[in-house]
TrEMBL record:
Pfam families: FtsX
Localization annotation: Cell membrane
Topology within the bilayer: Multi-pass membrane protein
This protein's GO CC annotations: plasma membrane
Lineage: Bacteria, Bacillati, Bacillota, Clostridia, Eubacteriales
Keywords: Cell membrane, Membrane, Transmembrane, Transmembrane helix
ABC3 transporter permease C-terminal domain: residues covered: 266-374, 678-798
InterPro entries, per the entry: ABC3_permease_C, Membrane_comp_ABC_pdt
Name the record gives this protein: FtsX-like permease family protein
Main location: membrane
Organism: Ruminococcus flavefaciens
Length: 805
């Protein structure tokens, strides 16, 4: 009986059945991919630790300390005895310059690979393991090189491309790219992996020793890192060394990848809700069409629960088959999705991905079947009276919407039909309104996440108080300014400011002097970047209750570390500051007490910060930190000032705030753009299918009314326009609700997410043309076009349909 009922259900309304089946498959795939994505995100650190065994510190030894007498090996007893070191091993890694590797079609001087410490090395065998795109070990043949997915994405290279490696002595070697790998070691380290034989040749004339120590700490904390560095400094080493350490605390990369994952999952949840609501609507519509048959069967004594099982046969079959397809398609798609938005993420074991995905899909199928049976409770309300009278009671004779066509002489008939139907039976369209609202909200949310992250406001979390413009120097300009700065003994940006001032342009680069301080609290010592000078402290925003430091013994602290250390405004802290010695020829360590006057937001990238009071001026200057690109002009005049700056430095050198954000975060902007496109296409597809499904059901349910209107002389185009106006009104309501969801719930979720990094005040930044014009027009245009094409079915309805009354 079950399969007979299923066969009959599938025979009729094939188009609607296909759409319902597609929706169930989409829901199953989303559940599979989403569950694996959530697990991968939550277990990323643990998986990386177990599979890649990354080091916490890379310690490199300089070659001028002879390797023949192994003087550098005096480091090893320090590592063996240190209570902070868990384990260590050596590796051969030859440090190369950022222009040493020449990628085709990529300008190393203009790209951002120069911000990473680069090494030539072989496949690691004792730790810091790397894996191919399939999460499996790989082999590099002679004459080839393997590069990370980061390099691939930045340079655009492909397998088979030829790259040139120039050694320090000028020898040039050509290598072919054979593999891309996932690198979960140091955030600021880039490795180029070659064969053992090639490494011997390519590193033969290296200036620096290629021995590095890969150190694993017992606890990867500032305390452990700083303590180990002190032990090395205090030991009698015959070797100079450099260190690269893993970040501790929030990084820009962590925050961006997490926000992409979170909002991708939010969008998937919204889509699944839309699909469930659509299934409910179609089931209710089918039951309404089958009221007579249901009433007759109940009159014959058919048990309600048993009949519900038969009536739900199609949905049960669709759920099972769709779930199987979702599992089959979800496994490869989940890997693609995770690698798409987290290129270096190591996937969970395949069997575990299958286990998680299958469990999630089975749970979804069970919920869908239960949901179908719950919707079937409507059958309990259908009696034999319904079988006799059909629709000739109840809703047909209830009071209609109090608007009459003969009293609305200036109202067009299609608009009258649409508005009376929607306002008179609003409850009927509730789920369609919710679907349009959620669909619009998904597109708006993913767009506004991208727009708000790739913005000058977000960049202020990098210790900028103002970003009216930015400068992207080409290599020639940078070298020229560097030479002038060295010749005159001033900072790089001082030379730039002098040129701007000479041109009479009301703009400048603002900066603070940078130094270092160690903070001790409860026996824990942390190293801080310390900034002071140029009256910049008062220009930053501080958390409520805080204020800018003024006195020499006052300071403000970055909020993330302050929270973790239990520090708040008014606390007195003991710090060791690197300050000028008496004759200003070097630095000394002075212990002082400072009062914390405020907390400020910054993406620490593993290094917390202190801003000293405006009266402080004793720190040892290790450099400077740019805090603002300021234009002293009204907002409406700033574009003109930017053009003046371009006249001095070049058109491509001076960037607007938006251009600066896109340039600084181009890697993440690519991912955000991809998320935006994927979600927009999926949502539009779902809304098109929903609209087609609903309009078809409306046309079927209202066939008698349509036939009656056509028999009275109304044209089919009039009825068709009535459907257009009806859907248009539902769209307006849905899009307005979607905008409200976006600017309230979406913005609150965005701000709430960044609070975990102690970045307060984060919210969506409006961009009027897209948020309030482009997105609504996109949703409305596709939905109304679908309605227009689908509503063409009214031309097939004739007067004989009235016989069904």
């Amino acid at each position: 009986m079950f399969f007979k009922m299923l066969k009959n259900d599938l025979k009729y309304k094939k188009g609607l059945n296909i759409i319902i089946f597609i929706f169930i498959v989409i829901a199953s795939v989303l559940v599979f991919v989403g569950s694996v994505q959530i697990y991968s995100t939550l277990s990323k650190d643990r998986t990386t630790e177990e599979v890649c065994r990354p080091s916490n510190i890379i310690l490199g030894v300089y070659k001028q300390y002879s390797t023949e007498n192994d003087g550098y090996k005096k480091i090893e007893p320090v590592l063996d005895k240190s209570p902070w070191v868990s384990s260590w091993h050596t590796a051969r890694m030859n440090r190369v310059g950022y222009t040493s590797m020449d990628f085709p079609g990529y300008d190393e001087n203009e790209g951002n690979l120069q911000n990473r410490v680069q090494f030539l090395t072989t496949i690691p065998l004792e730790g810091d393991y790397v894996y191919g795109l399939d999460d499996q070990p790989f082999y590099v043949e002679n004459g080839h090189v393997a590069v990370s997915v980061t390099v691939r994405d930045k340079t655009g290279v492909k397998v088979g491309d030829k790259v040139k490696l120039t050694t320090v002595t000028g020898n040039v070697y050509e290598l072919e790219i054979s593999n891309f790998f996932k690198d979960n070691s140091m955030s600021y380290m880039e490795r180029y992996i070659v064969s053992d034989a090639d490494y011997e040749v390519l590193s033969a004339d290296a200036v620096r020793c290629d021995t590095v120590y890969c150190i694993k700490l017992k606890e990867n904390t500032f305390t452990a890192q700083d303590a180990l560095y002190r032990e090395l400094d205090n030991s009698e080493l015959d070797a100079g060394y450099f260190t690269i350490s893993n970040n501790i605390g929030p990084t820009n990369e962590d925050s961006m990848m997490e926000v992409i994952s979170i909002f991708a999952m939010v969008a998937c949840v919204f889509l699944i809700l839309i699909i469930f609501m659509t299934i409910r609507f179609t089931m209710v519509a089918e039951m309404k069409n089958e009221e007579k048959e249901i009433g007759m069967m109940k009159a014959l004594g058919v048990d309600s629960l048993s009949f519900r099982w038969l009536f739900a046969a199609k949905y049960i079959a669709f759920a099972v088959v769709g779930g199987v397809i979702g599992i089959i398609a979800g496994l490869p798609l989940s890997g693609i999705f995770i690698n798409m938005f987290g290129p270096d993420c190591i996937l969970p074991p395949r069997w575990f991905m299958i286990l998680i995905g299958v469990a999630a899909v089975i749970a979804t199928i069970a919920v869908m079947i239960l949901f179908s049976l719950l919707v079937m409770r409507r059958i309990n309300k259908i009696s034999v009276i319904d079988a006799i009278h059909g629709e000739n009671r109840g809703e047909r004779f209830t009071k209609g919407f109090p608007m009459f066509l003969h009293r609305r002489k200036h109202m067009k008939i299609p608009f009258f039909l649409g508005i009376t139907d929607v306002l008179g039976r609003l409850k009927r369209y509730l789920f369609l309104i919710i679907a349009y609202a959620l669909g619009a909200a998904i597109i708006l949310v993913v767009f506004n996440v991208r727009h708000s992250c790739i913005s000058a406001e977000y960049m202020k979390n990098w210790m900028y108080h103002t970003l009216d413009f930015d400068i992207d120097y080409n290599s020639d300009t940078r070298n020229e300014i560097n030479k002038e700065a060295q010749r005159t003994g001033v900072y790089f940006c001082d030379v730039v400011n002098k040129r701007i001032e000479k041109a009479g342009i009301p703009a400048r680069i603002e900066y603070m002097h940078a130094g270092s301080a160690d903070l001790e609290r409860n026996g824990i010592i942390k190293n801080f970047d310390m900034f002071w000078g140029n009256d910049q402290a008062e220009k930053f925003e501080y958390h409520e209750g805080g204020k800018a430091p003024v006195l020499a013994n006052e300071a403000a602290m970055s909020a993330y570390t302050a929270k973790n250390m239990g520090i708040s405004e008014g606390d007195v802290l003991k710090v060791t500051i690197y300050e000028n010695n008496e004759d200003n020829t070097g630095s000394v360590e002075n212990e002082k007490e400072i009062v914390i006057t405020g907390l400020f937001d910054t993406m620490e990238d593993g290094v917390p910060s202190l801003i000293m009071g405006k009266e402080y001026d004793s720190g040892y200057k290790m450099g400077y930190n740019i805090t603002g690109f300021v234009i002293d002009a009204p907002e409406e005049d700033k574009p003109a000032v930017i053009e003046q700056l371009r006249g001095v430095f070049g058109k491509d050198t001076i960037l607007t705030p938006k251009e600066a954000a896109r340039s600084a975060m181009e890697d993440f902007d690519r991912l955000f753009a991809l998320l935006e496109k994927v979600m927009t296409v999926v949502v539009i597809l779902v809304l098109v299918l929903i609209t087609y499904l609903y309009v078809n059901i409306f046309i079927t349910e209202e066939a008698s009314e349509t036939a009656l209107m056509k028999s009275m002389g109304f044209r089919g185009s009039t009825v068709k326009l009535g459907y257009i106006f009806r859907i248009a009104m539902l769209l307006v309501i849905g899009i307005v609700i979607g905008e409200v969801i976006n600017w309230t719930g979406g913005s609150a979720l965005y701000g709430g997410y960044f609070k975990q990094w102690d970045a307060t005040g984060m919210k969506f930044i409006p961009e009027f043309p897209v948020s309030f014009i482009a997105v609504p027009l996109l949703v409305a245009g596709t939905v109304l076009l679908t309605t227009w094409l689908t509503a063409g079915g009214v031309r097939h309805i004739d007067i004989w349909k009235i016989s069904e009354e």
